Amino acid sequence: QLQLQESGPGLEKPSETLSLTCTVSGGSISSSSYNWGWIRQPPGRGLEWIGDIYYSGSTYYNPSLKSRVTISVDTSKNQFSLKLSSVTAADTAVYYCARRVRGVNDAFDIWGQGTMVTVSS
Amino acid sequence: DIQMTQSPSSLSASVGDRVTITCRASQSISSYLNWYQQKPGKAPELLIYAASSLQSGVPSRFSGSGSGTDFTLTISSLRPEDFATFYCQQSYSTPYTFGQGTRLEIK
Predict the structure, then answer these.
(1) Tens-digit pLDDT profile for residues A6-31
(2) Given an 8 Å threshold on Cβ–Cβ distance, is B91 in contact with A105?
């Protein structure tokens, strides 16, 4: 059974770069059927798609964050990563990684448990 | 960006009730509409994809309908484990966007 697990610091200082990794287990990240994405949820609020990546390295970003976001993939480690630069308190959120099914309505069918990231000095 | 608007924002219902949640897109999205359920402290789970297709393992009391701009999620007979927040999401075009959520509470 495929599982996703986020990892990374839970606290970042303003203006720093947030870095998270998602480890995929129970299946290969190098599948032509899926993209691998990041979605965040500020406390008590709704969901925001950040972006996602295909195993070949093709990326898709939310224009609202594009200038600060980099998503990368390491197929040898079955991992993909998120970097968000110049963070502010508005970037405080639970960050989820998720699998997006290509071609079947692009739904996010498997999610990690999420990791809380707080931006504070 | 395509805006997704859910109604109601919150809803109180009893076990056994039939419940309907509505999602409206700011432009036509064909059937590129997905529904998720999120319980407190947990990640969202996919319920319905392509507007009306039931995700594997999801109970048949959940159903979805609609196309174009108007969509509904229906729970035919509420069970205690169904009380949660529900989100719609359009996958017609990037950036993928979600509705603001509908919180379903026990009456």
Answers:
(1) 999 999 999 999 999 999 999 999 99
(2) yes
